[in-house]
Predict the 3D structure of the following.
Amino acid sequence: MQPIKRESVADLVYEQIMEQILKGEWAPGSKIPSENELSKLLGVSRISIREAFQRLVSLGILETRQGDGTYVKEFTPGVYMNSLIPLCVLDPVDLKEVMEYRKITEIETSGLAAERATQADIEELQEIYARMQASIDDISAFAAEDLNFHLAMAKASKNSLIIKVNQIVKNILSVSMSDIVSSLGTHMGLYYHKQLIDAVIRRDPELAKRIMAEHIEITIESLQGRFMS
């Protein structure tokens, strides 16, 4: 492990701890160094160490034993899914596979969102859309809000598994969204997202699914020959 000198210190602490666990340096059931020890080893504050610990505990990867220290938990299938998060960051993004994943999941998710969205969900979608409109000249900001929109649609589905899986692959989706917006611009996203909001407001799941299907199909067609081989 190396001292951390970049921004997002807590995230980088998290990544280094995960790397030690995934490499088997810290085996399930083993006690890991204390906050003080890791603070000195990595050259960061105890606050950053604590934030990383809290994140890993919430994912079920670490457990804190009162008065005893912090331990690596025995892996369960759910923990294995959570441990994909850093691998998603490190692996190269295959845009074709990402779009296939989105085609499989987002169409039905949109239908569920149209059925189950609360007024608060609708307002969140509208707020994100407004931020997209305000970011049409900033590709990076627009891509971030574009992804936020799709994650908000998943949230509106009220399906906890869909929401969790999207969070696991969020980093992959983020990279692919930047590629898409950089290549195709902002007009398409604004058009289809407005149509999706209207379908959710109308509580029309079949319309929402048709709009999302068309949105993804046109995106795939537009990207042929650029990112996909």
Remarks:
- The chain has twelve helices and two strands.
